[in-house]
Write a structure and sequence with these properties.
Blueprint (H helix, E strand, L loop, with lengths): L4 E8 L4 E4 L32 H4 L10 H15 L1 H9 L6 E2 L2 E2 L3 E2 L4 H13 L7 E2 L1 H17 L12 H6 L2 E2 L2 E8 L4 H10 L7 H6 L6 E7 L8 E8 L2 E2 L1
Parallel strand pairs: 6-9
Antiparallel strand pairs: 1-2, 1-8, 3-4, 4-5, 7-11, 8-10, 9-10
Helix pairs in contact: 2-3, 2-7, 3-4
Length: 245
């Protein structure tokens, strides 16, 4: 049985509020890591008849993100633009794959189907939000952290150089509010975003709140497949009032 890990942090300059999910909060909702993901980001699985992909796919033409990094931004924009539809299409189907706290015959969860139903309810009650636009500086900050964690097999928000998410972002720009999510183990953009939205085992639901934060307008993503313990690392940075240097 597998367990996966997610971490979230948010810092609001205007409110001086800080919260961080601890390392023992495990999230376990990606599909089996040893098979082709059921949430493959192929063209056939983009549901183009249900989404305005041209509007939501804000990162597709940038040259500093990989395909999966662009997919993460697309999925977050889908979730923000129509939370109810996102829940119906991509979260509700997961309720059929639980046996107690075991998901998809291979993933050990903390809360079982309860947190999935809670997430569905949350999304259906949420109002549509503005979409996120990619920023190179935010992506460079995320990519630095994901790549160095992959190389060193570390986890957490503290960088190998002692940096925190906000000092990494400040290297490239200024912001009024900022946050960071980290997912370990998921292998597709959709799995990453759905796993963070469900937020199994994280009482604050910090990942979900970061994705659905109305004050965030900019984002960056860093993804690597080279983490020895979890197989992959995806770091997502967020900011409001962001200006690159």
């Amino acid at each position: 049985m597998k367990r996966l890990l997610t971490l979230s942090v948010i810092f609001l300059l205007t409110q001086l509020f800080f919260s961080c999910a601890t390392l023992d909060k495990l999230n376990s909702f990606s599909a089996s890591m040893n098979k082709k993901s059921e949430d493959s980001m192929s063209k056939k699985n983009q549901d183009t008849d249900k989404w305005d992909i041209a509007k939501l796919d804000t990162a597709r033409n940038v040259d500093y993100l990989s395909t999966i990094e662009k997919d993460v931004i697309l999925e977050m924009n889908k979730a923000r633009s129509n939370p109810t539809l996102y829940a119906e299409l991509y979260i509700t189907p997961r309720t059929k794959k639980f046996d107690g706290k075991i998901y998809n015959d291979s993933i050990v969860t903390n809360e079982g189907i309860t947190v999935v139903n809670e997430c569905i309810s949350y999304m259906k009650k949420s109002k549509p939000l503005s979409i996120l636009n990619p920023e190179k500086g935010l992506s460079l900050a995320a990519q630095y952290h994901s790549s160095t964690q992959g190389e060193t097999n570390q986890t957490g928000h503290t960088g190998v150089d002692g940096s925190d998410p906000f000092s990494r972002i400040k290297k490239y720009g200024t912001f009024k509010t900022a946050g960071e999510n980290i997912d370990y183990g998921a292998k597709s953009g959709r799995d990453i975003v759905v796993q963070l939205l469900i937020d199994d085992g994280v009482s604050s639901r910090g990942h979900r709140k970061n994705i659905m934060n109305k004050d965030f307008s900019s984002t960056g993503v860093g993804y690597t497949k080279k983490h020895k313990a979890y197989g992959s690392v995806c770091v997502i940075t967020y900011a409001g009032g962001y200006m690159e240097k």
